Amino acid sequence: MKTSSTLSVIIITKDEERNIRACLESVAWADEIIVVDSGSTDNTLAICREFTPHVYSRDWPGFGPQKNRALDYASKDWVLSLDADERITPELHAQLVKAMERASEDGFYLPRLSQFCGRFIHHSGWYPDYVLRLFRRGKGRFSDDLVHERVLLSGASGRLSSPILHYSYTSQQDVLRKSEQYAAAAAQQMFGNGKVAMGADAPLRAGWAFLRTYCLRLGFLDGMAGFNIARMNARTTYLKYKKLHMLRSAQSTL
């Protein structure tokens, strides 16, 4: 399916050989693919170079700044930001092509359907999980957040209906590793923003995170997967506030 508008796909990577081939295959139709890698030691770079010559190695400044680096390499009319563990379906491809021909919007929110240890999740606050991923180049930049970055759009936005497929957590080891990484990055960001955590914050906020996910966001409808997602959210929240409290305590002793 052709369009008069051109598209740059931007992806950031590190040690993504398990995911990156399927991701790149799903956007092989794009006019340009940009990959910014932060020190992969597996076959990620070799796989990426099969699909695009635009592969760059940079240090790791955090998610938002790294995605802005990738954005700076883009040269086409529109930009689609994609993570290595995400896929564009043929149905979403068709919607993207039509969206880029519309003159009334400068960006589009896409629903995201995520998989947790082999099961796609429709509750637990995970779906439809609209994320702004398609935007006109020059109309959007990423926030400088170290984690949970977002696109800051200058202009009107719309929504598409076909979801990105997100293969986010493939195993329990994945859950533990990513919880630790996200908690550490979030604590560092909160610390940099002047946030304070008391000793009791970690368990109290963890308990609330579990209840919110499992009860208020209907995680119980996702069965055991919903319970495990609620438990993961509680653990990540606990680690985040515990680490923030430790950073503040270390600062006070200086």
Features:
seven-stranded mixed β-sheet; 254 residues; alpha/beta; four-stranded mixed β-sheet
Account of the protein in words:
With 254 residues, the protein is of the alpha/beta class. The protein folds into two domains: 162 residues, Spore Coat Polysaccharide Biosynthesis Protein SpsA, Chain A (Alpha-Beta Complex); 82 residues, no CATH class. It is 41% helix and 21% strand. It has seven helices and 13 strands. Helix 1 packs parallel to helix 2 and helix 6 runs antiparallel to helix 7. The mean pLDDT is 95.
Q: How many angstroms does the end-to-end distance come to? A: 61 Å
| Helix-strand string | EHEHEHEEHEEEEEEEEHHH
User: What's the helical proportion of residues?
Assistant: 40-55%
Strand order of the largest sheet: 3-2-1-4-9-6-12
Portion in beta strands = 15-25%
Could you name the CATH topology of the largest domain? Spore Coat Polysaccharide Biosynthesis Protein SpsA, Chain A
Protein structure class? alpha/beta
How does the SSE layout of this entry go?
Blueprint: E1 7-13, H1 20-26, E2 32-37, H2 44-51, E3 55-57, H3 63-73, E4 78-81, E5 86-87, H4 90-100, E6 107-110, E7 112-116, E8 119-120, E9 131-136, E10 140-142, E11 151-153, E12 157-159, E13 164-169, H5 172-192, H6 201-216, H7 223-252
In short:
The chain has 254 residues and is an alpha/beta fold. The chain is built from 7 helices and 13 strands.
